[in-house]
Design goal:
98 residues, 2 helices, rod-shaped
Length: 98
């Protein structure tokens, strides 16, 4: 169970890294032609706003998923400990009964 929890923690860490790196993928508005006059500039600004919003949303999703996965890893470890404690108690009871 610890190996599973470690793997879940690894995935959570990867998602946290993605959450931090996604904002770096946002190019300048000029890359979309947002500084152009007229209709091309309006389209460029809209594209830039859309790209920025999408990356921000994916970053939030990655952060939320990382948080949920971290909680899951804690729960897996806790349950594993509880199983081990129960198994140990049962083993001792059987040994006393023999």
């Amino acid at each position: 169970m610890d190996r599973i929890a470690d793997q879940i923690d690894h995935v959570a860490a990867t998602l946290t890294t993605m959450d931090r790196q996604l904002p770096a993928l946002i190019p300048s508005a000029t890359a979309f032609g947002a500084d152009d006059p007229g209709r091309p500039g309006r389209i460029g600004r809209a594209l830039y706003a859309g790209w920025t919003a999408v990356l921000a949303a994916r970053a939030r999703e990655a952060a939320d998923a990382a948080e949920r996965l971290s909680g899951m890893a804690v729960a897996v470890r806790s349950n594993a400990q509880q199983y081990a404690t129960t198994d140990d108690a049962v083993r001792r009871r059987f040994q006393r009964g023999l």
